[in-house]
Amino acid sequence: MKHKIIFFDMDGTLYQTENDIILDSTLEAIQMLKDQGYIVCAATGRPLNQMKLILEKVTFDYYVLINGGYILDSQLNEIDSFPIAKESVNDLVALCKEKEFGLLFHFGDASYIYNNFYPMYYFCKYCNVLDSLFYDQSQTFHKRHDAYDAVVLTKDKSAIDDFMKNHPDLRSDLINVKTDGFCFDIFNNSTDKSHGIEMILKRENLTWKDTICFGDSTNDIGMLQKADVSVAMGSASEYVKSFATFVTTSTYDHGIYNGVKKILIDEN
Hints:
Blueprint: E1 5-8, H1 24-35, E2 39-43, H2 52-55, E3 62-65, E4 70-73, E5 78-81, H3 86-99, E6 102-106, E7 111-115, H4 117-126, E8 133-135, E9 149-154, H5 157-165, E10 170-176, E11 182-188, H6 193-203, E12 211-215, H7 221-226, E13 229-232, H8 238-241, E14 246-247, H9 255-267
Parallel strand pairs: 1-2, 1-12, 2-3, 7-8, 12-13, 13-14
Antiparallel strand pairs: 3-4, 4-5, 6-7, 6-9, 9-11, 10-11
Helix pairs in contact: 1-9
């Protein structure tokens, strides 16, 4: 086979977030890849504690979590990690307290709500990620543990833009959600899924020429650009699709199976 390792985004790619479904055809496609000897990996914005429902159905060889901020092997041992700087975390806590924005931090294996408990709770419920979700009324957990990602719930995009201008070490992705507001993922500017993938490629003595990636969203663009073969889901925007080698069908229409089948035919 020409390629050796493959990375899958989760939400909107391998996993149907709204209804908590991984199609049987998707599971069959993953098994086909494993039977052919591919290293099969997850590359997601989710932290480990939000992977429980997925891991009940799929076991991966590596995990690129929290948009490349937290990288684990098949036994869930940490390979590398890139937490947000403490000073930036403190500033974000202060901003959300002053503006009364909803705030949640991902700490690798647990997520803590700081502000606006119920709006953040309902957002997490919508995403089927209530496991290992806690409430830190004292807002001090970040002083003892590394934060890898923040989720801010607000409609005040201008305040987020101003904060980002003053914190060039950070970047944000807008998440449109079915809640009363918008969510912004905030994480290290130098960290994305492709950066986490490179840690695994180095460990396996592989390069991007050995790599295949599947994704559907803007946080997948880095890995789609660099992979030798990149596959965008049918539900992706035209902008995201422009970075892919080819486009498969949507996750609801057997997109993973159809994409994997094409790859295996092209590889042989």
